[in-house]
Amino acid sequence: MRSLPAIGSIQRARDLSRAAVATCLLCLAITVVLCAGMRHIETQRMSAEFNQRSGMRVAAVTRAFNDATGAVRAVNLLFQASTEVSHEDFDTFTQPLVRQHGYLQALVFQRMVTAPERAAFEADRARTWPGFEIKQRGPGGLVRAGDRLRYLVNDFVVPIVGNEIAYGYDSLSNPDQRAYILRAIDTGEPTSSPLIDLLQGDGTRRGVVIVQPVYRTGASLVDVAARRRSVIGSTEVVIDVALLVGGSLQNVRLLDDKSFGLTLSGQRTDGAVVPVYQAGNFAGERTWLHETVFGAPLRYVESFTVAGKQWEVEVQQEAYGIVRSLAELAVFALGVVLSFSIAGLVQQRSVRTRRIEALVEQRTAALEQASSALRLFERAIEASANPILIINALRPHYPIEYVNPACERTYGYKEEELAGRPLETFADEEANQPALQELRGALRERREGHAMLRQFTREGAELMCDIYIAPVRRADGVTEHFVVSIYDITTAKHYEAELEHRAQYDTLTGLANRVLLADRLERAIAIARENPVWAVSLDLDHFKLINDTLGRREGDRALCEIASRIARTMRQTDTAARVGGDNFMLVLCGCTDERQAAARLQEVREAVSEPLALDKQVLVMTCTAGIAGYPVDGADAETLVKHSEIAMYRAKEIGRNGLQFYAPHMNAHATDRLALEGALRHALRDDQFELYFQPQIDLASGFVVGTEALIRWRHPQLGTVRPDRFIALAEETGLIVPIGAWALRTACRQNERWRHDGVGPLRVAVNLSARQFAEPDLVETVARALHDTGLPADMLEIELTESMMMADVEAAIETMRCLKRMGVKLSIDDFGTGYSSLSYLKRLPVDVLKIDRSFVHDIVSSADSAAMVDAIISLAHGLRMQVIAEGVETLEQLDYLRNCGCDEVQGHIFSQPQPVAIVEALLRAGRFQPAPVDV
């Protein structure tokens, strides 16, 4: 069967030969050049004649415009030569000009009339022209001109017949006309208007006005200002453009030749150039064939300027086409005949030659196609990033015949070193025996095969490779070669191992993670049978301080070092895991009782507490641990971990740096704490909180001067929950912030209600927690509470503790100063029980010191407590602060405080904290009588 290239070659042999086509084209080109030359000569002659005749028409048009400009200049000279020109003088002078240039619409003198002169001017002209008045254009025609400072009125008009409408027209009333008139006054030269609609006729006549100003005789015209002051009017010529151009061309009989077309274009007031006059025939749209046969029309365009305005004349004439030139047609026809005749002779000689070339081309193409395919396959194999080998299937041991460059890069062997060697050169015969047998079976059975083998490079490096074997068969079905493709998956295997390691080990410390911990703990329980297995939850004490002060990097270093110490104390059967942050879990096996488990855990705690050098500082870390044992404390891994964590939290509540074994009551305590936390989260939403108020008494007068707001929680199921039970939990969970904000608003609202009802004035004291004081928007919260409730700032007292201020003294001082600037009073609660410095105390903007009830309780029986109270009162008064004593319950305590100079007291001797309804009745009494209680 004949191949496709052969068919194509034979077909091309039957087509026209290139030589025949080239010969024909050359002859035709020569013919075209001859015809074009003859046509070019004729066109040049016609173009020269056309340009000459077009120039005559343009000259006639420009001469007519120049005559019009000359007419206006002549009239202007009349006014320059005489101080007073009468109407008869104007008619006598202009009538010959109008008769000489019959295409002029009118010659006009425009007089400048001011507003005061208008009435006299109109009356004077009305004597000869009844009903005369100064007019302007209106929506329906000419109307009486409006009031303006001055008018430029058409006073003398020649001829008046046909121009009656223009008599008395104010040219300055039209903005378009005013622009070119003012330009003429400033320059003193004739100035042309753009194309405008003339007043004459029915409004369809378009023309231009050429105006030249008339100045006062003898006036100095040195500058624009002088010209504007001296102008008394202007002379103008009104031109109907169509009449001017048609008349001037008709006078010289240039419109008789209808083969010429002429267009005159000028500018409108908006700047657009539009045709204003057309005469003769103009060529329409032509096809290329029409222009080829008859020729393109001749065009002549020339621009000229009339009194500052640009005009453009375009002249066209039909060209004489080739059909009018018999010589050109004869040359063209003869050239075409000769061209095809010569081409036919060349084609006959080329057909035979091309048949021979087609046969040679067929053989060459087949050879080139085969060579190209071979080069492509060879390049693909050499460019492959994976090793490819070709082995002989007919020789023993399947020797290697070819390896690509990737093989040398992967294994380090050169091609000549591998030639003739068996395929198993790279295999490790001691490993992966099933895979190696699969490859050998594929070679024996002459089929495809695949296996993953461990191999080695020339330098001994281990590789994991996927090997694919594919047989190459001849046409008769005999397999003579195998192609072996090798894929290096060493990196993928390492990555897979790394992922598996990360799935089971902590990435920072290298200890087991939660997943591996659960597996190890379940395995330990499975093989322990009845032997104990101990789960230890271990938490580092105050580790957050390291991150906050030294940074996360040093914190991570500390965790890695502590994890290493823990791992060193573990035995082979034990497990250490990091389960989050600074929390670790240990699985201890082989401890028969709690004593041995505690001893083993003590080794871990001692390793953790060894000095640790971080960032040029030496730290000593401690830890808190909780222990739960299998099977007593839990029968599965999850329960053991949960109980060990409960024990650890119990150990932290008792005091850090200790260990605690799990006991069943701890679970109940944890459950109770969890339930209390859940109830606390709903208490504020369900309006379960209530404020009690305890009066504060002035010792000097016995009157109530303030109250302290104390929060109470009444739960529907739990009953009244003591503040010491839920305040610490609220601090830990962060709920103290919204609860404290509620207490602040409620106390302010209640105190403002009392003030409005005439109880007081009283100040109300509200306690702030450390968490609240650290909030960045504390000042805004207090300001918003005062604004929303309307309570004056000096009737609110914020109580702070020493400990919350000492955490960051500078920030605390700045916050307190902001509160003081608002007018809020500040007090230090439980003074004397903290660890404040007197140097800081003098810097704090504090108004009140509150003596803690622990000092007041022993004030009578303990000389130390009495001395402490005396010192606090003296210190406060020396710093210009007031003193309030808390927890006053006996008359002896009250008398002693009064003798010491204490300012105010509060306690059960006057009143316990009471609800609003009860305390309001006491506050209305004003004075309280002490009622001592049994202590």
Protein described:
With about 950 residues, the chain is of the alpha+beta class. The strands form seven sheets. The protein has an eight-stranded mixed barrel, surrounded by four helices. Strands 1, 4, 5, 6, 7 and 8 form a six-stranded antiparallel beta sheet that branches. Strands 14-13-17-16-15 form a five-stranded antiparallel beta sheet, sandwiched between helices. Helix 21 (about 735-755) runs parallel beside helix 23 (about 780-790). It is flat and about 145 Å long. Mean pLDDT is about 80; it is low at about 1-15.
Sum up the structure in keywords:
single chain; disordered N terminus; alpha+beta; 23% strand; flat; 30 helices; eight-stranded mixed beta barrel; six-stranded antiparallel β-sheet; 935 residues; 33 strands
Task: Map the helices and strands.
Elements: H1 4-14, H2 18-81, H3 87-100, E1 104-114, H4 118-126, E2 135-138, E3 141-144, E4 150-158, H5 175-187, E5 191-192, E6 196-197, E7 206-215, H6 224-230, E8 231-240, H7 241-251, E9 260-267, E10 273-280, H8 288-294, E11 298-306, E12 309-317, H9 326-383, E13 388-392, E14 400-403, H10 405-411, H11 415-418, H12 433-444, E15 449-456, E16 462-473, E17 479-488, H13 490-504, H14 514-528, E18 533-540, H15 544-550, H16 552-569, E19 575-580, E20 583-589, H17 594-608, E21 612-614, E22 617-619, E23 623-630, H18 637-654, E24 659-661, H19 664-683, E25 689-698, E26 704-715, E27 719-721, H20 723-733, H21 736-756, E28 763-767, H22 770-773, H23 778-789, E29 796-801, H24 802-806, H25 809-822, E30 825-831, H26 838-841, E31 848-851, H27 853-857, H28 863-878, E32 882-885, H29 891-900, E33 904-905, H30 916-925
Parallel strand pairs: 23-24, 26-28, 28-29, 29-30, 30-31, 31-32, 32-33
Antiparallel strand pairs: 1-4, 1-8, 2-3, 5-7, 6-7, 7-8, 9-10, 9-12, 11-12, 13-14, 13-17, 15-16, 16-17, 18-20, 18-23, 19-20, 21-22, 25-26, 25-33, 26-27
